[in-house]
Amino acid sequence: MPKVRILNSKAGYNLAADYYASKEKYWDSFEKDKVLPMLGNLKSKKVLDVGAGTGRLALRMAKAEAEVTALDLSDEMLKKLKLKNQNLKLLTAIGDAENLAFADESFDIVVATFLIVHLKDLRGFFNEAYRVLKTGGLFLVTNINQRKAPAVKIKDGLVEIESYYHRPEAVVKLLEELAFSIKKNEFVKKGENWVNQIILASK
Ligand SMILES: C[S@@+](CC[C@H](N)C(=O)[O-])C[C@H]1O[C@@H](n2cnc3c(N)ncnc32)[C@H](O)[C@@H]1O
User: Could you state, in order of their start, the residue ranges of all structural domains in the chain?
Assistant: First the structure.
């Protein structure tokens, strides 16, 4: 059995950026085109995409004329996003979900797709999302049903990126505890099993 190196998100995604970018269609299948419609009309909306990665969602939101800031820990993931960006109105920022370098009440919408699986404790990030959102602003977060991190093949071996499973009801409960109002809580299924939870909340 080849040895699998376990890495934190920054180191892991810096090495796995090519792999992640090559599988975007597969990641899309966990959302079944539900995410964008939930956000409504994006024209001129200030949107923060936290853990934006290769821009799978950020670029679509920018095409819908949102003013997107795409934030990620991994510069290699953001490099992929920048390569794909065709003159859209989009800013990128290196940063940490748990310590957002933005003023209070500065965004209409905060999104985080496939991010929380990499956060051990969600409270810090959720508090930060709440802080940077305007009153009435939307928070969309997805929660992949992943109990064991997959081994990802990179140039010189296999890596596993630190991941944590979050129970769907615990995620909703925490959002409510932190004063978000839940507007939607939907599950994408493959066969009988849910594979992804999509939550839309408001401040
Ligand atoms: C599975 S990818 C999701 C990328 C994109 N949101 C999507 O849906 O395709 C997770 C991303 O979250 C980033 N990430 C992980 N922990 C983070 C943190 N604490 N702050 C900011 N970004 C983080 C990783 O670098 C990676 O790009």
Answer: 4-26+41-135+147-162
- Ligand 1, residue 111: give the atom nearest the CA: 6
Rounded to whole angstroms, the Cα distance separating 53 from 96 reads 12
In whole angstroms, what is the distance from residue 154 CA to residue 156 CA? Answer: 6
Q: Which CATH architecture has domain 4-26+41-135+147-162?
A: 3-Layer(aba) Sandwich (3.40)
**Residue 1 in this model has a pLDDT that exceeds 70:** no
Q: Is the pLDDT of residue 85 over 90?
A: no
Assess contact for 65 and 42: CB atoms under 8 A: yes
**Which residues form ligand 1's pocket by a CB distance below 6 Å?**
9, 13, 27, 50-53, 56-57, 72-74, 77, 96-98, 113-115, 118
Pairing of strands 133-144, 107-112: parallel
pLDDT of residue 89: 84
The SS3 call for residue 36 is helix
Tell how far the Cα of 48 is from the centroid of ligand 1, in angstroms.
13
Please give the pLDDT value at position 52: 98
